[in-house]
Every structure is written in structure tokens, then in C-alpha cells.
Amino acid sequence: MQGTLGIIVGAVVTLIIFSYLLGDNVLYRWALALLVGSAIGYALGVAVDYVREWIVMSLLEQDLAVSIVYAIPLLLGILLLLKGFSPNRFLGRMGIVGNLALAYLVGVGAAVAIAGALMGTLIPLVIATGQLLDGPGLAAVAQRLVAAVGTILTLLYFAHRPRTVGSDLEPRSWISRSVRALGGAFLMFGLGTAFAGAITSGLTAMVIRLSLIAELLRPLIGQ
Amino acid sequence: MFKNFLPTLMAVAAGFLVLLGYLVPIGFLPTLRQVLVRWATILAAFALLLAYANVLRVHIGRLFQKRAPYRVSSAILIAASFAILVLVVLEGPNHTLVQTWLQTVLIPGQSALLALTAVTLALAGTRLLRTSRNLYSVLFLLGALLTLLAAVPVAYPPIVHLVMQFVDAVATGGIRGLLLGVVLGILMTGLRIILGIDRPHSGG
Q1: What is the DSSP letter of A171?
Q2: In this complex, is the C-beta atom of B129 within 8 Å of any C-beta atom belonging to chain A?
Q3: Which one of A21, B86, B94, B111 is least enclosed by Cβ atoms within 10 Å?
Q4: Which of B76, B104, B193 has the CB atom closest to A9's CB atom?
């Protein structure tokens, strides 16, 4: 019973969202508000749950040094919350101290991003591009060569963007213009395939939703 | 002091220690990195709280405005977020009610929105040649069309397979170049922050 009710509710939400295809309407906006509200509430609930666990662990800790390790982020968090107050009030004026917490978050975020970009993307991509060139068969080597040349030309596309001198464009050599044109061609073709990938994912989601609705309607129409 | 000097020092020190923990995994550095990253996740939770307060401020303000459009939407958003928040905080994220809500409302709703994106993207694609008629637009649509055709489960002749493999190679080149560009951009931005050249935390 609960399963059927769940499917009905899901189907109704789906149909309300699909009603946008007929034009922007009140029901669609309400459904959107419901989804956004639910997502915000869930994300914040999980975050609060995590912080609560951290506080409990800090209270249970007997060792003073470890307690301090637990207390530092909580203190920084409270400093961060000060930034939410209006600057006209006392707590708001203290908000400048919250810059410390924000700076910590930005510093760690930047370091994690650099490490992730280096170890997760840059090095594996360079290795994969290098490996493209060795393999059996002329056709396979040609394909890999095309991919490697495409990668280099696409990177050069960004390096050869036109620069302005005053209000005019800086004159560029024909080599620079050609490299940029070829790189742009590879880039646009690649973006086209990514665009098609996004459409395919959306269509897959649509097929799943519509088939669930069809399952629901099957007993009603007697098939 | 709190405006510029100390925050920059904090960002540079925290960034360097975490980066060292990743790149030089010897001695106490990896453990220190783990502790520092966990602190950052706790701080991110506080930042989320601050963001929620801002969402509430905007939408509660809208509720009390006369003739404000989308008042009901704001009321639904506040009510839904508050209800789920209370439920998750009191019962935990794995409680049956929370999971039922996710399975029956949130997941179907979000996949329906994703499905809607497919239609919107397809429409935008058909309008592309009307708005900008150049070689790049043609190449973009050609890439999209060929990829969509390749996804159709039809027994194509071998020559088409060969062409498709070259199409794949060209697309791989383009996307890989783009990804490398993005990564280099991330590296430069991150390094500027860690070296104290950019200070987004102090508004500069």
C-alpha cells in the first residue's frame, strides 16, 4: 500500500513538473519550491547531524589536547556565524573576526582543489594523452594521433585568444589565427558530443519516469 | 589586522599544510592534513547554516511583502525545508520517514527536472542555427547529431563504425583539451590563494 502511494505521489510530482512543457504555471512553481525546500532541509539536516556528532565526541573526550582539537573548528564555526549578523549591531561588528574562519575554509579548499586537479585530472589526462600514441594498427594510431593533436590544439585555442590594444584588437599572425580556428573546431565538436550526452541522460530519466507512470496506469486501463 | 593580515596568514598556512599533506605523504603530514580537512568540513556545515539563514531571510521577507509575487512558493519552500530539517535533526537522515520522502518526492521530482532539461536542450539546439549561423555552430550540432546517432542501437555497416571511431577521437581531443584548460585554471587560482596573491576571504 505504502509502495503504491509512493508511486502515485512520485507520478503526480512528475506530471506537475512535466506540465512546464505546456507553459510556466503555478503548480510547476509550487512543485519546484517543494523540491528546493526539501533538498535544502535535507542537506542542512545532514550537516547539523554531523556537527552534533562532533560536539558529542568532543564532550566525551577525556584528553585535554584532543578536546582542543575538537573545539577549534567549533570556535571557528561560531566566528563564521558572526558574519551573518547585520554590521550595525554589536555582533555584526564582530563579524570581521569571522574572516579568519572564512580564510581557513578558502585556504583548505584551494589546497584540496589543487591536489585534486593535479592527482585526479592533470596527471592522469597527460598520461592518457601520451598513451594514445602507442597501439596496434594504422587506423588506431591515426585515431589516437587525432585525439592527441585535438587536445593540444584545444589548449592552444585558449592561449591564442585575441587581445585588445586600447580599443582595437591586437594583430595576429596567420599561424595564430589558424591554430585558434582549428582548436575552436575541435572544442565545438567536443562540446557538441557533451551536449548530446546531456540530452541522452535527460531522455533516459524521462523514459524511466514515463515508464513508472505507465506501470501505475496499467491496472486502471485494464492491461 | 582581522581584515587582511591574520586571515591571509591563516589561508596561506592552512593551504600549505594541507597541500604538503597531499604531495609529501611522510611523517605527521598526512595525519595533519586529515585533521585540517575534517575541521574544514565542520566549518562548511556552519557555512551551510549561514546560507540557510540567508534563504530564510529572503523568503520570510517576501511573505510579509504586499503584492509580492511567488508568496505561496516562498511559504512552501520555508515549510518544506523546515519540516525536513526538523525530521532529519530529530530522527537522523536514515529514518524511514525521511527516506520515504526522498524516494517519493525528491528523487522523482529531480529526475523529472532532468528529463525536462533534455527537452529544453533539444529545443535550444534547434534554435542555435537561427541565432548564430557560423561554422562553429554547424560543428557543434554535427558533433551532437553524430553522437546521438551512434547511441541508436542499429547494426551500422563497418565503414560507419570506422567514421564513428574518428568522430570519437575528435570529440576526445576537444573535451580533453577543455578539461586540461579547466584544470590549469583551477591550479592557477588555487596557487594564487595559497601564495596570498588573491584574498577572496578579505574581499580582495
Answers
A1: P
A2: no
A3: B94
A4: B104
Measure the CA–CA gap between A170 and A183, rounded to whole angstroms.
19
Chain B: closest CA distance from residue A89 (Å): 17
Identify whether B121 is part of a domain: no
Grid cell for residue B84:
525536513
Residue A111 lies in a domain: no
Burial state string for B140-177 with b = 16 or more CB within 10 A and e = fewer than 16 = bbbbbebbbebeeeeeeeeeeeeeeeebbbbbbbbbbb
Tell me if A213 is assigned to some domain: yes
ipTM reported for the complex, 2 dp: 0.84
Chain B residue numbers with beta carbons less than 8 Å from the beta carbon of A54 are 42
The pLDDT profile of chain B, 204 residues, written as one tens digit per residue, is 767 788 889 999 999 999 999 888 888 889 999 999 999 999 999 999 999 999 999 999 888 887 777 889 999 999 999 999 999 999 988 989 999 898 889 998 999 999 999 889 988 888 888 888 889 999 999 999 998 888 888 877 888 877 888 888 899 999 999 999 999 999 999 999 999 888 887 765
Question: Tell me, what amino acid is at A26?
Answer: V
Domain count, chain B: 1
Name the residue range of residue A166's domain.
Answer: 132-223
Residue A103: its chain B contacts at CB < 8 A? 6-8, 10-11, 14, 199, 201-202
In a domain, B92, yes or no: no
Instruction: Please indicate, yes or no, if residue A212 is contained in any of the structural domains.
Output: yes
Residue B4 counted as domain residue:
no
- Best A114, A119, A160, A177 residue to mutate vs chain B (most B CBs within 10 Å): A114
Show residues of chain A in contact with B112, CB under 8 Å. 13-14, 17-18, 205, 209
Considering the domain boundaries, does residue B137 fall inside one? yes
Whole-number mean pLDDT of chain A? 85
For residue A148, is it within any domain? yes
CB pair distance less than 8 Å for B202 and A110: no
Residue B201 identity (one-letter amino acid): H
B146-185 residue pLDDT tens: 988 888 888 778 888 778 888 888 999 999 999 999 999 9
Domains identified in chain A, total number = 1
- Identify the pLDDT of residue B75: 94
The cell numbers describing B132, all together, are 548564430
